[in-house]
């Protein structure tokens, strides 16, 4: 048997909406009879006389007090116009329907248009004070009428209200008629509320099989009609008897504040109570109804009311968090919603079950034994009790609340997340962002939910969170949140401690296959699949700024510096400034695309800053270039000054400075031309209002003032040189005397040195000779320098003939000792070095050179036999070493092997091990020249042995070749052989 799964609030709301729709329809179609009162009747009446009719009825009172007194005399108070209980209760006398729904406009003397045509229309409105929250009649002026809302717009000195007509009394109305209008509305509202209470209570009645037709009547009806007709008649029959019983039940129960409603049966006239009493035994019928009806005890009603309150608490909760003070990142949004779900599920699985169980247990605890005994221990008896139906009713109410929670939460979730994406639904997958980067065609006006930060990557621009991650995450949240609402237990195990229940009893919630849930899920999926398309397209537009973002400032400046002139640099700087201003105009701080708030500020700032940095770097580069150019010019100026102001070291130096000073005007003109070009480039910096560093500013103006400084310095230098010339003239006389003395000293020294003939001291003598020769050359150069100065001082030249004769006479002596020392060193190296490193051709050329050199020196020293003996001694050494060249060539023969060296050593009686690595001195000490024939025989035999070995090797090679040829031919013959 099924029981109605009804909800107080839902049921009443449906009835309220139906009543309101009927009321508004009747109001719009009603043709009310209006009193024909012309607005001109009151046109000449002052405000003090407008209320004279009321003043005659109730004198000595204010206008508001008079109106309240008239209403009070007619049985009307303010509570009847304002009292409204948002949560109606069966046993309550509080009104829950708005009284304006029952206002009858037939009581209005004029139409709305005629009322509004009265200038300065005033009256009294029942409004609520904003501070005291009390309802009071307040004098107001009528402003307008809202036909859509059926509300009059009125105001006083401070506030404006929108109120229904029944709470507005106009000064031209009859107070008595206005009172009747209110009384009629109150009466109609009371009837409607009583009818709604009765209708709702009658739907809760479950009578089981008590009002079924008897079997004979049922069979007869089925035979004479179809099953469908029988079912319809049976439903009408049951409703009639239930209503008939309810009327009797309600009359005899004072605790139910509901008046019986007459049931209409097959006749047009309703049954009256007297007629019913003649047909039924009311006491028996009441006892029967009390046994059948679930609400047969006040505790049950109280329990259901408390359960209803707990369910309303659940309905007001939300599984999701969608409202944030500012857009959230996806991880923050997910974390907040998971935390919210944890709190809600904690409440549903624990607090809700515990509170509902506690409320039901507390309400039924004192009922005792009977239909609602919560201490029942028998499962079979429990299933036949009203308590079982009550728990089922509570279960259905809790399930309805849980489903309302899911429906409301998912609706809010989808609306909040999907509504901002509505403008992205029509676009296709190939959409590209063509318009402005500032204005978004996908900004719906609703607050965006998610926060994204736009970055610039090396490959392409990207967001702080991948847009493709939103749909899986949101869909996962949606699915998981709906699925987790199926994990709420029933209250049965916790309510009945004496009964045993299965551990997997859960309340039924909305499933993922429910059409509404599936539709919302599909809408969420479609919205975020579409919203990602313009999101990616917008990011792709920033790819054009990737080159700028990753531009290396140093490399860029270096390239511009090496490839562009100053004018081109100026154009480049102007371009960078224009591009920076363009970025400031075309790039937004942020933009909204669907439900995404994209933060572009960091990237925008970086791009603008990069343009600014490039501009600053170019200006700095240009400044450095100008600094270098100016510095070069200043250096050239300083070189001129330094060279002009050098302290002269000699008279030649003075004449050099004077010659240089003659070219200074031309140099200054060239430098000034260079500086004009630099100044033009400085004007480029001035064009961009670039402030030069102090050092550059000082250097620029120093370079501009240098020519004048140098010209002023020339006169001082001339005066300085005059004094220096006199000083150098005196020094020249002193140097001339010193030069003559040095010539005499060197002549005496050479005369003593030419008497040395010791051949054993050839090295020491050669060193002294070189020193003397160097001194003679220095004296000769010094004498030439003195003669040049003599010309500059306009003095007679110095005689250098004696020094020339001395130099010529010393040449032969110098060559003899130098040649002797050089040959001694060369011969020593030939003797001491290994035989393998001695080159015979070089030895032969060297001996020939020294032989001719010594031979040429004999004639100059014909009158000096001691010197000729020295020359002949070294000439003899050269001639003595010549025969050794042939011996060295034999010792270097390549065919000599260790066995040959042993034969030579044994034959010559040499006890030392010989080889090509031994020095030639060793062979000379053992008189190798005496065994030259033996050495030749050994070499001849070595050559013969080599020839024999080569002949044998050639024969073996020929034999091997013949064998290979034979084997190859035999293999070919084998392959060509025919098989038998």
From TrEMBL:
Q: Please name the InterPro entries in this protein's record.
A: DHC, Dynein_heavy_linker
Q: Where is the Dynein heavy chain linker domain positioned along the sequence?
A: 804-958
Name of the protein in question: Dynein heavy chain linker domain-containing protein
For whether the record's keyword set contains Ligase, the answer is no
Record's keyword annotation contains Coiled coil: yes
- Write out the coiled-coil annotation as residue ranges: 928-975
Q: What are the record keywords, sorted? A: Coiled coil
């Amino acid at each position: 048997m099924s029981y109605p799964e009804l909800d107080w609030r839902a049921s009443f709301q449906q009835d309220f909406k139906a009543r309101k729709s009927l009321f508004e329809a009747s109001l719009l179609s009603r043709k009310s009879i209006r009193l024909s009162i012309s607005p001109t009747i009151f046109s000449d009446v002052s405000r003090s006389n407008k209320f004279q009719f009321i003043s005659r009825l109730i004198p000595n009172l204010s206008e508001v007090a008079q109106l309240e007194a008239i209403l009070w005399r007619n049985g009307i108070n303010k509570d009847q116009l304002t009292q409204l209980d948002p949560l109606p209760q069966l046993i309550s006398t509080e009104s829950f329907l708005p009284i304006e729904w029952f206002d009858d406009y037939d009581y209005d003397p004029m139409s709305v248009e005629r009322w509004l045509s009265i200038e300065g229309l005033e009256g009294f409105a029942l409004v609520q004070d904003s501070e005291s929250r009390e309802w009071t009649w307040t004098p107001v002026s009528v402003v307008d009428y809202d036909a859509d809302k059926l509300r009059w717009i009125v105001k006083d000195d401070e506030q404006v209200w929108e109120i229904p007509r029944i709470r507005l009394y106009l000064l031209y109305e009859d107070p008595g008629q206005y009172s009747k209008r209110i009384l009629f509305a109150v009466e109609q509202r009371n009837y409607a509320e009583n009818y709604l209470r009765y209708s709702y209570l009658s739907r809760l009645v479950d009578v089981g099989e008590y009002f079924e037709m008897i079997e004979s009547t049922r069979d007869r009806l089925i035979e004479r009609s179809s099953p469908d007709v029988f079912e319809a008649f049976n439903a009408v029959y049951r409703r009639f008897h239930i209503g008939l019983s309810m009327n009797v039940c309600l009359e005899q129960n004072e605790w139910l504040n509901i008046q019986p409603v007459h049931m209409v049966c097959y006749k047009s006239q309703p049954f009256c109570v007297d007629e019913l009493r003649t047909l039924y035994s009311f006491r028996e019928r009441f006892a029967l109804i009390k046994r059948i009806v679930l609400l047969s005890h006040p505790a049950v009603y109280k329990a259901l009311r408390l359960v209803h309150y707990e369910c309303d608490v659940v309905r007001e909760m939300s599984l999701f968090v969608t409202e944030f003070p500012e857009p959230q990142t996806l991880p923050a949004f997910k974390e907040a919603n998971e935390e919210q779900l944890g709190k809600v599920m904690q409440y549903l699985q624990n607090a809700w079950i515990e509170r509902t169980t506690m409320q039901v247990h507390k309400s039924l605890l004192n009922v005792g034994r009977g239909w609602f005994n919560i201490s029942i221990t028998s499962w079979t008896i429990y299933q036949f009790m009203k308590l079982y139906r009550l728990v089922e009713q509570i279960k259905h109410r809790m399930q309805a609340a849980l489903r309302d929670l899911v429906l409301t939460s998912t609706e809010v979730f989808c609306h909040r997340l999907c509504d901002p994406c509505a403008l992205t639904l029509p676009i296709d997958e190939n959409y590209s962002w063509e318009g402005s980067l500032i204005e978004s065609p996908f900004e719906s006006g609703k607050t965006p939910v998610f926060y994204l930060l736009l970055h610039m990557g090396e490959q392409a621009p990207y967001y702080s969170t991948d847009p493709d991650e939103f749909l899986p995450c949101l869909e996962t949240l949606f699915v998981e949140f709906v699925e987790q609402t199926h994990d709420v237990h029933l209250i049965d195990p916790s309510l009945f401690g004496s009964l045993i229940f299965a551990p997997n009893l859960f309340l039924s919630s909305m499933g993922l296959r429910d059409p509404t849930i599936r539709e919302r899920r599909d809408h969420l999926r479609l919205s975020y699949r579409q919203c990602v398309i313009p999101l990616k397209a917008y990011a792709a537009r920033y790819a054009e700024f990737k080159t700028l973002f990753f531009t290396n400032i140093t490399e860029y400046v270096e390239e511009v510096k090496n490839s562009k002139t100053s004018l081109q640099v100026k154009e480049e700087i102007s371009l960078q400034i224009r591009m920076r201003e363009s970025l400031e105009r075309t790039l937004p701080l942020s933009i909204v695309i669907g439900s995404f708030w994209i933060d572009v500020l960091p990237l925008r700032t970086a791009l603008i800053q990069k343009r600014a940095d490039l501009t600053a770097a170019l200006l700095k580069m240009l400044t450095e270039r100008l600094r270098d150019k100016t510095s070069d010019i200043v250096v050239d100026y300083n070189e001129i000054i330094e060279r002009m102001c050098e302290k002269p070291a000699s008279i030649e130096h003075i004449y050099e400075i004077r010659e240089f000073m003659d070219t200074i005007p031309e140099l200054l003109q060239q430098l000034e031309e260079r500086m004009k070009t630099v100044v033009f480039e400085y004007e480029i910096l001035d064009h961009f209002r670039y402030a030069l560093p102090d050092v550059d500013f000082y250097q620029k103006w120093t370079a501009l003032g240098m020519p004048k400084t140098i010209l002023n310095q020339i006169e001082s230098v001339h005066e300085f040189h005059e004094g220096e010339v006199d000083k150098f003239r005196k020094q020249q006389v002193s140097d001339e005397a010193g030069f003559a003395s040095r010539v005499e000293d060197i002549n005496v020294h050479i005369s003593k040195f030419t008497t040395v003939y010791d051949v054993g001291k050839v090295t020491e003598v050669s060193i002294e000779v070189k020193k003397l020769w160097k001194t003679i050359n220095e004296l000769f150069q010094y004498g030439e320098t003195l003669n040049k100065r003599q010309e500059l001082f306009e003095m007679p030249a110095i005689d250098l003939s004696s020094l020339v004769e001395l130099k010529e006479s010393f040449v032969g002596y110098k060559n003899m000792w130098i040649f002797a020392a050089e040959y001694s060193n060369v011969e020593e190296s030939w003797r001491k070095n290994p035989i393998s490193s001695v080159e015979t051709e070089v030895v032969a050329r060297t001996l020939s050179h020294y032989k001719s050199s010594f031979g040429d020196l004999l004639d100059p020293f014909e009158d000096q036999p001691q010197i000729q003996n020295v020359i002949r001694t070294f000439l003899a050494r050269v001639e003595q070493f010549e025969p050794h060249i042939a011996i060295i060539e034999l010792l270097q023969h390549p065919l000599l092997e260790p066995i040959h060296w042993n034969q030579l050593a044994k034959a010559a009686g040499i006890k030392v091990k010989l080889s090509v690595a031994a020095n030639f001195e060793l062979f000379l000490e053992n008189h190798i020249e005496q065994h030259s024939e033996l050495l030749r025989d050994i070499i001849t035999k070595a050559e013969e042995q080599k020839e024999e070995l080569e002949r044998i090797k050639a024969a073996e090679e020929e034999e091997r070749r013949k064998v290979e040829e034979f084997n190859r031919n035999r293999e070919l013959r084998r392959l060509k052989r025919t098989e038998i």
